[in-house]
């Protein structure tokens, strides 16, 4: 009974059930509101000897990180947590004027001279790296960067 209005449209329970069954796979779930959980491999299995067993010395070289593009530095930072390589990527991002926001766990960079600067914050246009969404640099207008949320190291 397509086109029925008001209470009459709910009389055909089989049709309602079919519609709900069709839509249910795409309905939001409670876990959709949770922050994403990222994979953290800790080498749970032994790999064959012909695979590298140690980190290549090149990956510990500051000169190597200076040659990486920004997107690769972000990848190393977010997907190699707790490693020397993560620290090296962070150092290189800081050299390129990126600043890490500890509340949002996101890298920011000034897009223009701040509109307002105080002892506690600065406000203006910023670029930020959207690592949770589309893995790209985005612009945020009228953003207040509070210095208390700035990473110290």
**N/C terminus separation:** 66 Å
Fraction in helix = 10-25%
Count of alpha and pi helical runs: 4
The number of E-state strands comes to: 5
Helix and strand content put the structural class at: alpha+beta
Mean of residue pLDDT values: 85
Compressed to H and E, one letter per element, the order equals HHHHEEEEE
* Poorly predicted ranges: none
Radius of gyration: 24 Å
- DSSP strand content: 15-25%
3D shape: flat
**Main β-sheet: number of strands, strand sense, barrel status?**
5 strands, antiparallel
From the structure above, extract its key features.
20% strand, 153 residues, 4 helices, alpha+beta, five-stranded antiparallel β-sheet
Give the structure's gist in a few sentences:
This protein has 153 residues and is of the alpha+beta class. Helices cover 25% and strands 20% of the residues.
């Amino acid at each position: 009974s397509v086109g029925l209005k008001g209470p009459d449209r709910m009389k055909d329970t089989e049709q309602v059930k079919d519609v709900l069954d069709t839509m249910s796979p795409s309905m939001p779930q409670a876990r959709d509101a949770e922050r994403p959980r990222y994979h953290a491999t800790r080498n749970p299995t032994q790999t064959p000897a012909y695979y590298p067993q140690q980190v290549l010395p090149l990956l510990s070289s500051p000169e190597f990180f200076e040659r990486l593009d920004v997107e690769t530095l972000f990848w190393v930072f977010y997907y190699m947590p707790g490693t020397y390589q993560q620290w090296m990527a962070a150092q290189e991002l800081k050299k390129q004027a990126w600043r890490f926001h500890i509340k949002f766990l996101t890298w920011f960079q000034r897009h223009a001279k701040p509109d307002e600067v105080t002892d506690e914050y600065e406000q203006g246009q910023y670029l930020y790296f959207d690592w949770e969404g589309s893995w790209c640099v985005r612009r945020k207008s009228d953003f207040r960067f509070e210095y208390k949320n700035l990473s110290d190291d």
